[in-house]
Amino acid sequence: MINYIWFGLIFLGLLVSLITGKGGDISSSIVNSADNTVKLIIGLVGVMCFWCGVMKVAEKSGLTEKLAKLMRPILKILFKDAAKDEKALGAIVMNLTANMMGLSNAATPFGIKAMEEMDRLNPKKGRASDDMALFLVMNAACIQLVPSTVMSIRAACNSQSPGIIIIPAIISTATAAVVGIICCKILQRYF
């Protein structure tokens, strides 16, 4: 369905541009936006490599494991079924830790593994358990200690201080995570 919507929007835009005589403006905008996109991606590659290296150093130094140890007691309280299974809890911890460090690409395999492990524990196959729903909310609204992707985009766009967003990001993502967890726990009682 979304393909039809996109096609309709593009077709309608091209049709209007041809009727109004702005076809040249549209084609130059397409070329310019493609050029800007390539420049942005090239700028992001270097910064993302840097942050992936920082995450690797944090992993090798044991920082991520220490963060995981801090999170385990809290997660055992939040997740009722997954807390009893070490594989499921381990995948949840690794996913949330990678997300906290701002490396959503590195977190994706752990998130998939966590969902598979929770599905293995789920008595109602084909239906998301409370733990699965809570994990999805926590994954989407995870606290960002180092918002590396946003900082990378800001750096690629020549921001004067790309790291100035760290404190606001921690506050806003922590608020989103707490509200999401509270909403999940309230809804678990009724559904």
UniProtKB/TrEMBL annotation:
Superkingdom, taxonomy of origin: Bacteria
Positions of transmembrane segments: 37-58, 133-153, 165-187
Domain Nucleoside transporter/FeoB GTPase Gate positions: 42-153
Alphabetically ordered keywords of this record: Membrane, Transmembrane, Transmembrane helix
Entries under InterPro entries matching the protein: Gate_dom (IPR011642)
Protein name: Spore maturation protein
Species of origin: Clostridium cibarium
